[in-house]
């Protein structure tokens, strides 16, 4: 699905195997309609690294920066700078994507 295409609530329900026939789901959709157009920032963090400014200035094209994560380890997914999930990197056609494998509940960071 192209990133610039809007997803309506019925399509989201269908993707999750739910139908709009359930009265609670329909009511929940109507309750959430007011926030559908609010923009949010979504970030996927593959890993982190600490460098001194002198090391940073020596980095050039083709340089490799070691991150604090191992290959295959879950990545952190943030919404508006708040950790909300963990997931894995996937390839969708010729683009990178994220699949969520764990939803973070509460204020864990």
From TrEMBL:
- Localisation per UniProt entry: Cell membrane; Bacterial flagellum basal body
Q: Which InterPro entries match?
A: FliN, FliN-like_C, FliN/MopA/SpaO, FliN_T3SS_HrcQb, SpoA-like_sf
This protein's membrane topology, according to the annotation, is: Peripheral membrane protein
Biological process annotations from GO: bacterial-type flagellum-dependent cell motility; chemotaxis
| Source superkingdom | Bacteria
What are the residue boundaries of the Flagellar motor switch protein FliN-like C-terminal domain, all occurrences included? 34-104
Q: Which residues form a coiled coil?
A: none
GO CC term, one of those recorded: plasma membrane
Q: Name one GO molecular function term.
A: cytoskeletal motor activity
User: SUPFAM superfamilies from the xrefs?
Assistant: Surface presentation of antigens (SPOA)
Alphabetically sorted, this entry's keywords are: Bacterial flagellum, Cell membrane, Cell projection, Chemotaxis, Cilium, Flagellar rotation, Flagellum, Membrane
| PANTHER family, alphabetized | FLAGELLAR MOTOR SWITCH PROTEIN FLIN (PTHR43484:SF1), PTHR43484
Protein family (similarity comment): Belongs to the FliN/MopA/SpaO family.
What this chain does, per the entry, is described as:
FliN is one of three proteins (FliG, FliN, FliM) that form the rotor-mounted switch complex (C ring), located at the base of the basal body. This complex interacts with the CheY and CheZ chemotaxis proteins, in addition to contacting components of the motor that determine the direction of flagellar rotation.
- Please report the name of this protein according to its UniProt entry: Flagellar motor switch protein FliN
To which species is this protein native?
A: Zavarzinia compransoris
